[in-house]
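Sequence only, no structure available. Ideas?
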Amino acid sequence: MAGRIGFFLQVLPVFAALTTAGQAPSPRELTENMMAAVRQIKTASFTVKKWERINGIIKYSSSDAVMSKNPLQIYMNIKAGHRKGYRFLWIEGDHGGDALVKYPDFPAVNIPVNPRGSLFRYNEHHTIFELGFDYFLKITEGSIHTTGDA
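Reply:
I predicted one. Tokens follow.
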């Protein structure tokens, strides 16, 4: 919930500027303004809830996440799902590119794991690098580039 409120507070000035201009923006202008607001986000904390079909079975997972952009840092505390109790921290340029994973069975030990490797991605479709607003920003930019002004 806090992540939604934080995002709303960050994009609110964009919407306020749009409504005070006196006329509604075009869909293109609205999209570009929202993308500009997303680019301004430096840190975010949010809850990730996902349902994925893995080997024909729907799997649910919920995690609390905190991200910082420069350098890119990702912390996740998995609250529900097949990895409940796991926590990890990945910092761009640290630990040889590995994430430090704290397993619930070994609470005093941080184990370095490659975030793109098979162990880290076991029963997962997406990597941690597709987390947050920037991933959707890239998709939106790609769609605009592909479709042009259509």
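The mean pLDDT is 81.
Hope that gets you unstuck.
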